[in-house]
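Job type: complex structure
Entries:
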Amino acid sequence: MHGRPRKAPKPEDEAASSAKAQKLRALQTQFFTFHHNKIYTKEAVELSAKLLEINPESYTAWNYRKLAVEHYLNLPDCNPDSIKSVLDDELRVVENALRQNFKSYGAWHHRKWVLSKGHSSIDNELRLLDKFQKADSRNFHAWNYRRYVAESMKRSEQDELKYAEDMIYTNFSNYSAWHNRSVLLSALFEKKAGGFLLKEKVLPEEYEFIHQAIFTDPDDQSGWFYHLWLLDQTVTTDSPLLASSWPGHGSDVLLVGDRCYNGSAFSPFSALHSDSGSFPIVLYFNQPVGGVNSSTVTVECGFNKNEDLFWKPLSASNSQTARVWVAHLKVPSSDLHSTVEVSVGHSKGIISTRGFVYSHPSMFSFKVHVQPMERDSSQVSVAENISLREENFKVYGTQSEESIIDSFDQLIIKNGHETTASNWRFEALAKEIECFRELLSLVDCKIGKLTLARLLKAYDAMSYPFANKLVHSEEVLELYSDLMKLDPTHYQFYKDEHSIVLLQKVTSSKESLLQHCFQYKVSASSAICDPICLRLNNLSLSRMGAFEKLLWVQMLDLSHNELQSIEGLEAMQLLSCLSLRNNKLRSLTALEPLRKLKSLRILDISYNQIGDQSIDTTRYVCSSPLSHSVGSELNRDETVTSDVALINNWEAFFIFKDFNLNQLDIVGNTIADEKFKSVLVKIMPKLKQLDGKLLD
Amino acid sequence: MESFRSLTVTQRDQVLVEQQVFDIFKTFYNLPPSSQSFMLELQRENHVEYLTKGLTGLGPSFCVLDANRPWICYWILHSIALLDEFVDPELEDNTIDFLSRCQGPNGGYAGGPGQMPHLATTYAAVNSLVTLGGDKALSSINREKLYMFLRQMKDASGGFRMHDGGEIDVRACYTAISVASLLNILDDELVQNVGNYILSCQTYEGGISGEPGSEAHGGYTFCGLATMILINEVDRLDLSSLTDWVVFRQGVEGGFQGRTNKLVDGCYSFWQGGIFALLKRLNSTKGVKPIPLGDGEGSGEESPQTTASSDAAGEEGLNEDLSLGGSHSEIGDQHNTSSQVNVIDIDHNHSKGHANVEPLFNSLALQQYILLCSQELNGGLRDKPGKSRDHYHTCYCLSGLSVCQRSWLEDEDSPPLPRAVLGPYSNLLEPIHPLYNVVLDRYWGAHEFFTKS
């Protein structure tokens, strides 16, 4: 409807167009009579053609013509010649209609329908398309139809690529042509037809090609978006990979029933306090996958049957796909030293959301040592006041450094299958990086900076398994800082990217990570080994990332950042103590990832912005009864039986009911008045401390 | 490199549009403040007059829209509702009668009496009737038959056809699901595999195309995203790449383009702007409150401290826009505390009340484009300067404007601050329900009606 060229009506045209309207009305009345009485005489069919020439959007008339054609084809005296002439007539009518309005859905659809009958020559179609695509090179109907025609006549992708190339040479801003190029190449990659079609050969050529456009005019959008696709093609591996796991390969896990444990042979990095008689195995994939279960992942150990393991996806939604999967191994309460072997993907079934099969079977093993659990509840339940005060932290590394660093090495996951990166990918990226550095030395260009940042990040990510440092992270951080200043409209976007790169940098080497590891040591504590706290405070993070490197963390300090969301934190299954103090969390529902952290006991969300706004209004975004995903897992009785106060504090109830907290700090949020706190105490009967005050 | 000419056709067109738009902005900034605020004023009366005229009779040039007559009803009625005006009762009755005559004997609404039912016009007709509201309008919809029609349009692949024998695309999916949801007849049969179809249309750019293989497009991205929310499968989409894509569709003119490297067009103020309204809610909250319908509890306590000094507010908003701001509060607001952790006595400024949510697009720049470039002073809105007004663009420019004005708000129940509304505060339009694009209180009316029956 819109975008059609409009002419301002001239007075002398008015009379003519009014006459035209009269004519149309008459035509229409006549047409409906024919249509409703199923009259398909020559006269009647011609009349519908007239109607369509005036108004190609008259979809009822197109359907009438389809019925008429079917009627003819079913006549007893119909022969190949007459069929052809009937269908040729249709094509002619469509062509006339398209001249009137080449954005008519009905007309293009009718043409497809006629061709699908298989009696018409398809060769004319490309000629016709040439005409229309010259008139409007961005008409997506024409491009859709072109793809349809090329497929029907089995025209080779190479020929179509050539066509797209010609279109690009005519107008390199024509994004539809670039887009079609990407569609064609994707199809070729998928087919893997012929040696020269491999990405290795094609992509470097495509980079050369796109440079022409980008360097001719760096302000033109089309090239940049095509470049983004090329980059994606260069770096992505179709098949999902296991990025990391907890426990890591070759690690020793010590499970203790109490927070204090003996045995200096074990470093605090691998000791885990467990009061539930089980511990998690966490698999972290490089993209969301489905189909993780006891037949695709086998766990062999002396104390659990593989079939008993239940693998659960950890994602914000209830979907059955996730990057992170977890299963809990039950451990006997007696002394135990055992080896656990986990093999992933030896039998097929793990599949990415994009439909690619996990095809890099991998295996990891670790040792578990269980110290007899102290079941004495009186001892365990002593409310221990954990306070992340500055004076309670010690810089790590004063004692038994070597053993600690050794065990730390085990946290870094090495993929058994080396890497999928091949030399041509590195070469392509290195060349691009050089190229864009050159471009940026000539012109100052936001999208150029963003692209360079993406290239560098991709290069680092690819080389990571070999190098133990991210060579370019400083440069990437600088680019994003620049962009925040240059392009304040998209500040938050760059800020988020900046945060993630910063986290990747921090977690990239043990040296840098150890700088953020502190011993939590309260003077009164008699423990030989004190828990390790990872402190990522005061980094002005707006987003969390690098989870694959942080699966081992049990104590995490994220205070004094700018987090508005903690999406992804559900991957950190071992977390027992978390500080989100002084961030920008705006609602209780932002805490949802924490519901999946079953070991979380101590949580500090004080001094955020929870409650600054009145209640969330997603209720009217999700008004459909089918949309109540989160609510649907809820037991109805729970809602009914709970207190009236809970109904008024629905969000709090929904979020906190699954928590197993001992200690919560919520002061400094608008929501946290006395009334609200009393509700919290009701929702979490196990809570022992609230805002530093002991509860009865 | 030498094989490319210096300026492509696309670039020439773009330069021309930019010149036109920037000329308007330049003229505007050189005006005295009083004339500025006049130029930024939404010409409510003229718009209503233009719209009402369209409902009673249209010129012969509208022949080409003959198969889209319920659309004309919707564009006009929805625009009038956004302006908080009503059509007179006789006209309302006529409209209901007319739409009833478009309703097919086997369900669904056609482009006009005697034509065959079509999903797009069904959407338009249902939204029109919901916008009119009231028992007569709402009960005129034959929901059982309509459900059967939707089932008939459902293709084995999961997608929907626009009409019997018609094309399958994302538009068809959205209109079918939207109507079903609004009328409370959405069920598993209708939902089945729709998500797969939409998913197959998300392109590498992040946006959604009309059909698999095609390029990402603003209208389809809205339709696809809204559909996925309605069927509760939105998490299957790559939302971060979708956000990336839509963020970069806002151009230097302030308005949105529909596709990469296309010209700005006022109607995308809604198609793209509406995407932000949907994303905002998805991001800010993931939980759903099962509350008794009717009197929403979150409302009321925010007093409209907003009505005063509206003219000054308009200018303030504009200045902010000039400095390409909207984000500098964020930058200046960093806590410069040292690495101390347990500082209890920090001066926290979060209790100052209305902390608003930063929109992901430049809302004031878009409002400026709509008011200065899309608005025709004697009524109606348009694609861009140099084009003429029409009902389609009037509807979607105004819908986009309403979304903009509330883009800072997290809570839709309270009115936006004056600085969020460009121009005089009287420019404030009625809020819409972004999934269906009907005015919010009309949505609630329909919701109540259809949950009861």
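Summary: Residues 285-356 of chain B have pLDDT under 50 and may be disordered. The longest helix of chain B spans residues 9-29.
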